[in-house]
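> @MW can you paste both from yesterday?
MW: sure, first one:
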Amino acid sequence: MSVTQRSKKLKVFTGNANVELAEEICRCLGEELGQSEISRFQDGEIRARIQESVRGAEIFLVQPCNSPSDSHLMELLIMIDAMRRASAREICAVVPYYPYARQDRKTQPRDPITAKLIANLLTAAGADRVVTMDLHAGQIQGFFDIPVDNLRALPIITEYLQTKNLEDVVVVSPDVGGVVRARELADRLNCQIAIVDKRRPRPNVAEVMNIIGTVEGKTAVIIDDLIDTGGTIVKASEALIKQGATAVYACCTHPVFSGNAPEILQASPIKEIVVTNTIHLPIEKRIPKLTQLSVAPLFAEAIRRIYEELPVSKLFD
């Protein structure tokens, strides 16, 4: 049974984090975005109002939890609670950018594992399922006791890179932890990989120590799951140029772009920065070097398959 045949039972809602993405997902599905309002009381507390019936409906709440992550997360939790109390049949939290994912383990005594806490909060609020994209650490899926679909942007990024007809490509992982991601992109582009050996003296500060692999005379494509301050990517690009790379492209799924990251990236040796629209970027952060690819069709297909009880696994190819 198609989505259009049962459209009265499928409803897509969104908070304030990325309305454009939610609207594009709805266009791909041929559905109208659900009517809701997120506002604040005088003391700053969040108020959510669902402005149509959701009784017996399968709800998909689209809300990436990027900065301000605390506000966006609370919006999502409150909307899940509202849907549950309004007798929604199933509630799926569609979280293109999962918050606190970099705090997925204890690295020092008395550290919290905040990624697990977020999983507990989503489940306690009433979510029956989560759909996300390119978790910083794959094991976060295991923090949940409900189904989690971790979609991948790599095929979308690969397709775009292939249209550029780049020559003598080497895929570069900005750290040892990203080697698996870099290897898969390299396999898709039929090229070799290189690795940036770096250390972090403190959070959000990276120092490039060495380049492992041959980059001289090649077009370097750096691949990562996110770009935050831009420091890691820029230092890696400078090291690659110094080692003889002819051009550097940077790709990631989540353009976090904290602080003055856009200015740092624009002034860097990077020729083009390819990202997706999991995170809404205001106009001032859409620098000339930036190319933003849409993940809406992929999320729409995932929603359709979940709704029609079809396998989602085909979307990972």
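MW: second:
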Amino acid sequence: MKKFLLYLLMPALVFVAGCDKDDEERPVTPVISAVYPSSGHPNMIIRIKGKNFSTTREENKVQFNGKAGIVIEASETELLVVSPVTGTTGPVTLATPKGSATGGVFTYLPPVEEYEVTTLAGTGTAGSVDGPVATALFRTVQGVAIGTDGSVIVTDRGNNRIRRITTAGEVMPVAGANSAGYTNATGAAARFRLPWRAVEDAQGNIYVADRDNHAIRKITPAGVVTTIAGTGIAGYTDGPAAAAQFNQPLDIVADAAGNLFVADNLNHRIRKIAADGEVTTIAGNGTAGFANGTGAAAQFRNPSGLEIDKDGNLLIADRLNHRVRKVTQAGVVTTLAGDGTSGYLDGDAAAARFADPYGITVDANGNIYIADLNNHKVRKISAEGKVISIAGGAKGFTDGLGAGAQLNTPTDVCVDRNGNLYVADQANHAIRKLSRR
């Protein structure tokens, strides 16, 4: 009887085995599930996600509406492809030895100004060396600002120093030394503790957001460092400068009247230090969140970048809200760009996406520039409300044109009177320059 039952089951067993063999031999064709971003410009790095791609880079033939892209990295589930210069709006297709696939439509956006990215100073190696820009070394640069003489002021966070790149191409010390502390003194005798950003006023005084000393410091043209606000202890207190408290201030700007404004990171507020030393809160209520409104009705989430436009409005890189915000002189907070989702998308400002917008500046024409930290790019918000990427492709350290250049976690950006941009390229330990072509 047992033999009889086994005999009856054998055809089924053979059939199942046969199915497994057929499945192994059946070709597995590629599938495109997403093209990201879905719009952009020539020479951008595009991510194509899916499955069953060839792990041999050269075997993946990607076309944008019939024009070949350049595949630079390949895995079974993702391709990195440079969009073709001659491409036009249309479907993205893939051909491999396993078969072919068609993805979504990639839309070519109108041409934008091209920027040439070069390295102003720093070699990609961390260190602390002054002198000619070709051999100077920095360590996790955090901030850049334009001095009154056209020089670039560098907040060299990892070295706890403030330094200056002169227009003659020399890196000069301003204040601080290669050790952390909290000392008011002159030049190299002064100590900072992870200084984040700085700004120079019309009289040549430099103000520093000294993050982990929870204080705002001042450096005179003679190099004398003093504390102008903050107790050195993290907290939140408005009032006279000597009693006021901050919690990791990250950025600082000055207006023509001598008032200072501070992005107070862990207090989730925008603060003001008046010319008479009184500290007040302009906007934010101390709760991390997102809300537009006036004064304490508004909410931020770790504001990290701050700039002031020609009309006296404050522009905020609201980092963990992934948005760019505006604060009027009356304390009214609105959103200029970003939908609040971390990502990367150019286009209309309200729908655009950033990934930790970290530093911000504005030019004389009202164009806003963002150091987009985790997208490794510099983005531009035009006066017409369009967001475009002007520099940076995949994470790396390469000079070049637009998306063909590479940055590594850019933290800050500033613009000179000629429209050139300077970027604190943090993980590359370098200062990069973007010049219009």
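> thanks! Residues 1-23 have pLDDT under 50 and may be disordered.
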